[in-house]
Amino acid sequence: MNYSPIRQKYLKQLSGKTLFLQGDAALGYGAIYAGCDFFAGYPITPASEIAELLALEMPKVDGYCIQMEDEIASIASVIGAVWAGGKGMTATSGPGFSLMQECVGYAVMTETPCVIIDVQRSGPSTGQATKPAQGDIMQARWGTHGDHEIIALAPNSVQECLSLIIECFNLAEKYRTPVILLTDGEIGHLREKIVMPDPDDIRLMSRRFANKGEVIFGGKLIPPMIEYGKGTFSHVTGSTHKESGMRDVQTQSVHEKLITRIYAKIDKNREKIIRVEKDFIPDAEYAVVAYGATSRPAKGAVIKARKAKKKIDFLRLITIWPFPRNEIRELGKRVKKIFIPEMNLGQISREIERFVHCEVVPISKIGGIAHSIDEIYEAINE
Amino acid sequence: MKKKHPLVKYLREEMLPTVFCPGCGGGTVLNVYAHAINELGIDPATIVSVTGIGCSSWIPSPYYKTDTLHVLHGRAIAFATGVKIKKPDLKVIVIAGDGDIAAIGGNHLIHAARRNIDLTVFLINNSIYAMTGGQVAPSTPQGVPTTTTPYGNPEPNFDFTQLAIAAGACYAARWTTYHVFHLLKSMKKAIIKKGFSFIEIISQCPVSYGKMVGMRTASDFLRLYKETSVNVKKAALMKEEELENKIIIGEFVDKEREEFTEALRNINKRLSPEVA
Amino acid sequence: MIIPSKDFKPDKKAKFFEVTIDEDFCKGCSICTDFCPKSVFESSDRINPRGYYQPIIKAEEKCSGCKLCELLCPELAIVIEEKQQ
Question: Residue B247: which CATH number?
Fold first, then answer.
């Protein structure tokens, strides 16, 4: 069984219920379904509701939800709790995500499985605090310094918020990496119908612990973890370290081996990690690629265009990072033009350009108001 | 003739001798800590050492034979909070320097003390940022030249123990690396005390700080500590002018109040009888 | 008045201690030499395997077993053990 008896009982009571929830609330419930037992956060619009829901519900399943003094302390305590054997998550928005970057790097370097929710809002800086945007895409990829890979997923509905957060936790455990859930204020504050799943239908990835004598920072592509209190005398450091965990910053080969292995964990498993939603039609001339909140009006525009006899492919990115380059390459060979509506000045369109020879047309809209179907349709028609 | 120190069993022997400069007070703290764990009879498997970045953070990492979490500069207390909440039965000890805990990490220090989370924090105060070569720290006395205050430090320094007390620490003490027997007793008390326990350990840095003030040997510092230390109980009866340039040592606070992880567990117990 | 009776015989079991310094660990910081209350240690010109001037044990018989050096030594190089007579 996936869950402790108290959590199983709690989730069974929710099972099958149809609720009308915000995306933030769905993320919170999803974390409970995923087995999360430690949440630390700091209030920030539009992510505060995640903490508020978990503050109410986590203690009911014998978990902990605490408000720390800042975002850095939030993610730091999550990482500490994970090494002590917990499943940890934090949630924030752009400004808090900026503060957390050093700790994201620490989680990458120490291969700590944890989940970070970024409910994106209009930036840079304080920006339009209460308005949605998709401006943190590149920050999720490169926000922390140094060479690293990262996994980031983007839901586009309240129901998907719940299912994707469970997938985030599973990916984190499977690849021993921090995973980012990139949503935005639009989905976060949107209220929609959601059907709560049966806990018996949920498949959870369990953490693999090291046997005696097994190293936890090498030996395999994805090494096992440890849990404090079991006499492991482990040594976890953000400095470059050997397979045993002991620091060695002088030997060039130690650093190269460590960083390339951490990179390879995700890079070599792209096919297993990447998920997209393809809606391709034969003889397509154009394509629309979208993700997150914009994928909804984008799909609407595609449907409208197809009704007007336009041959348009539609690709929704569910995994943002690692970037679905093979799927984009395949699409680039099929069509003359790829349109990419984004609530930023072209962060994914830039990434698409790298992998295709056809024309890439960003349909950018910033200022906190989501694209409408007509806006995207008109841009496609030009 | 060579005899192995009986307490090296509490250390990662393969990493010895230490990387500390000759005479570094950090080594003395390492020594006293090993004695404390030995005399308390604590199983090192039940200890988690959390440390930051700096010369003082190199005391537990890599020398302590415990589960060691060596984190980012200034954030040791924040990471330790997560460890302690998840595993309240383990002893979580934070050892780091003055810049780490009270400059960049100052916010985490005051909130952990306010919450009264059961952590043991040893702040090693060597008056300088030693590892990076001798920059000014919030512990550097006013007027002292450092690499980033070549014309003399324009700022006064902190009283870290008073900071911890004002933030709500249940146990707060200050000792020096000369007063090793008092420090040993105090460390033992701090480790087993339930609640936020804080010890400021004034420690010599004959290399990075010593060269700024013209004291190049460890013994110079230890003599200074011996001569200028005043016990807190005696200091309470002295006038302010008499206490100038004195180091006030001793146990300042030793009290009890509700501990944070216990308060959290009580909430869970209230909601679900099966947890209780 | 605290004075012994006429037939008082003092307990002559004096304690002796063995003092050793691990020269592979010692960094010649001289804390032991400067702070031993009985002046058991002395500086020397001998260079130890780590390249430092090695403090030597001048008067082991004077050691009172206070263990201040054992506790102060930053390298845990000094071991004080009671000699079993």
Answer: 3.40.50.970
